[in-house]
Amino acid sequence: MASELSSSHASVTGVRVGELIDGRPVGRFHYLLLALAGAVMFLDGFDTQSISFAAPAIAREWGLPVSSLGPIFSAAIVGLMVGYLCLAPLAHRSGQRRAVIVCTAMFGILTLLCAFAESPLQLIALRFLTGAGLGAAIPSLVGIVSEFTPARRRSSFVMFIYCWYALGFVAAGVVSGFVIPLWGWRAMFIVGGTVPLVLLMVLLRYFPESPRYLLLRGAGDRANATLRRLDPALPSNAIVLTDATDNSHPAGEGKASMILDFVRGRWLLNTLLLWLAFGANLAAFYAIQSWLPTIVGSLGESARVVIACTVLTTVGGIAAAMFIGPAMDRTSPFRTLGTVYLVGAGFVALLGWALGGGSTVALLVAAFLTGTCVTGGQMSVIALATVLYPTDMRSTGVGWALGIGRLGGIAAPLIIGAALSAGIAPREVFFAMAIVLVVAGFCVLALERRVQAVRQP
């Protein structure tokens, strides 16, 4: 891992970043990083899901028909796509730490402003801008966590921080049950905007910068100081070296050239298959998260059942992540995720059956099982992207996969709103969604065959 370089004064150690990180056991630095990244992801999830629980109250206050909620649901998702595609790649120049801090401040302030919206148009515009901030933060969080994680634990760590994103969804449901009846829907956005601004103070003090980014910017001393937080035994005069693959996209290179690498040569089909899997998974994910509360409420179920049903789709994903992440690390990540999607198609169909006349217990069980594969699959496909792409392509690759995949997330709530308005039964809608997950499963399995073919001598 290290080589001794002669010096006229003292022996100086040369250390490769990747070898140092992979050789270190999980310790306090990792736990702090996971806590900070998890906190941002938690608030991101809370903000993203709050609109689903606030929407019925918004519709009542402003006299809106249910079918008009689609644009309000989709505004933040469109913003997320813009953040992923346009803002996230800028972290390659400005640094992932700065991107996380700026975007956390951005979505905190804009969420607060949502509490003062006076019309659907204002709320749609603010949700769009909030989504852009949320979308730009996530790829940098995933990129930094995966960079500091030993390769043998990468899928598990990325899945872990995404569990906090899912827990933010759960918290939105629980908090909305108390806050909205007492203080109204605007209070949800006050809570969702204030907490990120408080967290910002902690991020400024403790959140690390990517050592590879620092080295490519010529800030070797700062990279050394960052790595000594990971390994206190690292000499202060150690020469920290980039990995061989880190120089393919030097700092300052145009992002257009870097992004083209994802859609040419050997990466073209791999990237397209990954994007299709992301889009299919996100279509099912956002369709369920956006419309399930409204659909279940329209069946005459109580507010508690509505919240429980929606929350269980997230709890199921968190429970599944405890098994999916380690399975991806120990066996084939592609085969594991492909199986998750195919099993999930059956669970989504089961949820459609429960919505068509099953008992309340059957509805809750089906919601939980659906979450294990739809929400769990969404966490897993992020981890899959970090395995597929090398370090210098990772945060941009994750951002673009999430951004392109958001096309499915944008379209699905709108299509379901139109289908329900046209009189199509919820059962039929969910049966169609099951087919979408089958497509995602076959894409991931096809990706495995391509990756294996490239690795064979």
UniProtKB/TrEMBL annotation:
A cellular-component GO term for this protein: plasma membrane
Residue spans crossing the bilayer: 29-46, 66-87, 99-118, 124-145, 157-180, 186-207, 267-288, 303-324, 336-355, 361-388, 400-423, 429-447
Single GO MF annotation: carboxylic acid transmembrane transporter activity
Keywords: Membrane, Transmembrane, Transmembrane helix
Record's keyword annotation contains Iron: no
Boundaries of every Major facilitator superfamily (MFS) profile domain copy: 33-452
Membrane topology annotation: Multi-pass membrane protein
Statement: the UniProt record of this protein carries the keyword Mitochondrion: no
Compartment annotation: Cell membrane
Main location: membrane
Domain of life: Bacteria
PANTHER family: CARBOXYLIC ACID TRANSPORTER PROTEIN HOMOLOG
Protein name listed in UniProt: MFS transporter, AAHS family, 4-hydroxybenzoate transporter
